[in-house]
Amino acid sequence: MLLRLTTVTCTLLFLSPPAAAYPADSEKGRRKVVHVMEDDTGAVIVQTAPGKVVTHRGGTITLPCRFHHEPEDVDPRRIRIKWTKVSDAFQFKDVFVALGHQQKVFGSYRGRVSLEQAGPGDASVIIHNITLQDYGRYECEVTNDMEDDTGFVNLDLEGVVFPYYPPSGRYKLNYRQAEEACREQDAILASHTQLHKAWLEGLDWCNAGWLEDGSVQYPISHPRDQCGRKDSPPGVRNYGYRHKDDECYDAFCFTSNLNGRVYFLKRFKKVNYLEAVKACQRDDAVIAKVGQLYAAWKLQLLDRCEAGWVEDGSIRYPIVNPRSRCGGPEPGVRNLGFPDKKFRLYGVYCFSRNPEHTDVKPTQAPQETSYNLTNSTRSI
């Protein structure tokens, strides 16, 4: 008899957030083991971490997996360990395989993945230099001759979800274009889990966007008639899985820790877009991407009450501590839209891998007033 661990995932919509549904921050990254009851048939038993392990982009993380075999006198050279990444659509991507002393790492994981080798029965792997694409669910499979068992580990990233639409306007992106739009802004399409967590933290956005599994959803913290009826409960609204080529929406992107710093370039005069790009280059930097600005706001607490160009041609500024002259009562990254790149003049946000670049707080609020700083309330 083969003993297996199975996982069932359920999506709940339009529900208020239950306080006990998520573990406290003190539990993040803590290593746990499932203790599986043994039978008398001599099966391979795999034990993995329930829940998830948490890290950030650029970090190092161990995906825990241990096994034992009854009887225990098994030649370790006959044990095969295989790690696979499993997508929400149940697509499998090889990560790592080992048979005795022979090991092979696949694709983008080459040079970054190795066995932990903490002793007999340890099938854990270490992933170095974590990327955004590493986020997700992993399967640990251990095989000995005809016996095998599997367990699952979820790798989560600390980061921020942000809604995105291109200069061409709202509801202009099919699924592939949404993927590319997030990638161009130093991000990936967010998962439902990431969007749900952002909603629990207060994200309220009245436009539907693609998620990485091909579904279209949007988070509402403050129900209103323009956003699906005022008498509806708060929650993550779900359009379900949509046609990836024919239907167009916005995107919900996810990004994580920066390997550098975003800063507002202090200048004596404001500049147009092309001048902004060149100004960052002269400062040994590049113009910041939207995802980089969101990461700096969320993870580095960048607070600057001054509007500036970012890479996609939009004008934005990050507010951690809301004040009356800086766009309203809520923290967030203010978006003033996509003005004329040639004739409109603003400051600029730059990104540099040089840690010596720092931000200096301004003394007055942005002067631009012609764009709405809050989310559109287009009815969907």
UniProtKB/TrEMBL annotation:
This is Hyaluronan and proteoglycan link protein 4. Disulfide bonds join 206-227, 305-326. One of its GO terms (cellular component) is extracellular space. The lineage of its organism: Eukaryota, Metazoa, Chordata, Craniata, Vertebrata. Residues 1-21 form the signal peptide. GO terms for molecular function: hyaluronic acid binding. Residues 358-380 are annotated as: Disordered. Its main location: secreted. Pfam families: V-set, Xlink. GO terms for biological process: cell adhesion; central nervous system development; glial cell differentiation; positive regulation of neuroblast proliferation; skeletal system development. It is found in: Secreted, Extracellular space, Extracellular matrix.
